[in-house]
TrEMBL record:
It catalyses: 2 GTP = 3',3'-c-di-GMP + 2 diphosphate. PROSITE patterns: GGDEF. InterPro entries: Diguanylate_Cyclase, GGDEF_dom, Nucleotide_cyclase, Rev_trsase/Diguanyl_cyclase. Residues 188-317 form the GGDEF domain. It is an enzyme of class 2 (transferase). This is diguanylate cyclase. SMART domains: GGDEF. Coiled coil: none annotated. It comes from Catenovulum adriaticum. It comes from the Bacteria.
């Protein structure tokens, strides 16, 4: 491969012109495909805090094949591939051989943490080529880190409201079960939940905003420890939070939220002591406008607030019992 400076600059310009993570990842693979004579390129996401018996959970994000590639000898279980594991541990590229192929494995480092791994199989490999690919990968990782920072609430470390607003429709349409054998059914649903810390204004008034912020921070930590890695956690604004829970039954979502409610009640917040929270949940129906689903969850939350707080409610259950007025699914709602 002969790559001149103009070609590399064009690749960098194309990658850095993208403004969201999926587009950036796709652009990286496109540019590598244009620049390299390769057999297979694989992009993996490394699940954070997923280490179990020194095994890291790898999620296949994308794969590109050369039409003439012979793939019989290629790795299929990357979670046990020594080269991939060494790449994650050492945070440095690894070079090895696989039959007639060279295997180049590179980390995508975001704030010195391995966000993903790029595995490339190709026939010819030299130091100059390795450095070229490494620099292109580093540029991509830096851009992903910048995008990630813009998506995060600075106080709690959860996803922020702007991220929810910009991706809400995609979140609803792209929700997939964590286990491949699961599929949507009449009993299994995706859920949007609004959580609200009870009497938070009184906490701020009595103890001050410093302790109020500490409550928000510790509350978000309890969320991270009690919800699944696959659940999406957002700080919606002030003392309100949103959780998107995928592929559970009605009884399961109630159990999940009750477990979280009890975890909050049992936690002693510094200076403040006991804190409670209320939660309103709505089933995610892809045929509904996302804002309608949010309003349904908000109606259920309001019911909890008006009826004693420190409880969990599902919108459709309340509507069936005529405890609340059902949200008009055809209404034009402007929440953002």
């Amino acid at each position: 491969m002969t790559t001149n400076t103009i070609d590399l600059l064009k690749s960098v310009a194309n990658i850095t012109s993208k403004q969201n993570k999926p587009a950036i990842k796709t652009a990286l693979l496109d540019e590598l495909e244009n620049l390299l004579t390769f057999d297979v390129i694989t992009l993996l996401k490394v699940e954070s805090n997923s280490t179990k018996e020194h095994r890291h959970q790898m999620e296949l994000v994308a794969i590109r094949y050369n039409e003439s590639a012979i793939t019989d000898c290629l790795e299929t279980d990357f979670s046990s591939d020594p080269q991939v594991l060494n790449c994650v541990t050492d945070k440095h590229y690894q070079v090895g051989a696989c039959d007639k192929y060279n295997q180049l494995t590179l980390p995508l480092l975001v704030k010195n943490q391995v966000y993903g791994v790029l595995v490339i199989y190709l026939a010819k490999l030299d130091k100059t080529l390795i450095k070229t690919i490494e620099q292109l990968t580093n540029i991509t990782a830096n851009l992903l880190g910048t995008i990630h920072e813009s998506e995060i609430d600075t106080l709690t470390g959860l996803l922020n409201r702007k991220t929810l607003e910009h991706n809400l429709s995609d979140f609803f349409s792209d929700l997939k079960p964590r286990e491949p054998h699961l599929c949507p059914s009449e009993d299994v649903h995706n859920w949007l939940v609004i959580l609200d810390i009870d009497n938070f204004k009184l906490i701020n008034d009595k103890y001050g905003h410093t302790y109020g912020d500490e409550v928000l921070l510790l509350f978000s930590d309890i969320m991270k420890h009690n919800f699944r890695h696959s659940d999406m956690l957002f700080r919606y604004g002030g003392e309100e939070f949103i959780v998107v829970i995928s592929f559970v039954t009605e009884s399961q979502v109630i159990d999940i939220l009750e477990r979280f409610r009890l975890a909050v009640v049992s936690y002693l917040f510094p200076q403040v002591g006991r804190v409670t929270m209320s939660a309103g949940a709505s089933r995610i129906n892809p045929s509904l406008h996302p804002n309608t689903v949010i309003e349904q969850a908000d109606k259920a939350l309001y019911f909890c607030k008006e009826n004693g707080r420190n409880q969990v409610a599902l919108h459709h259950q309340l509507a069936v019992k005529k405890l609340i007025e059902a949200v008009d699914i055809d209404s034009d709602i402007e929440l953002f």
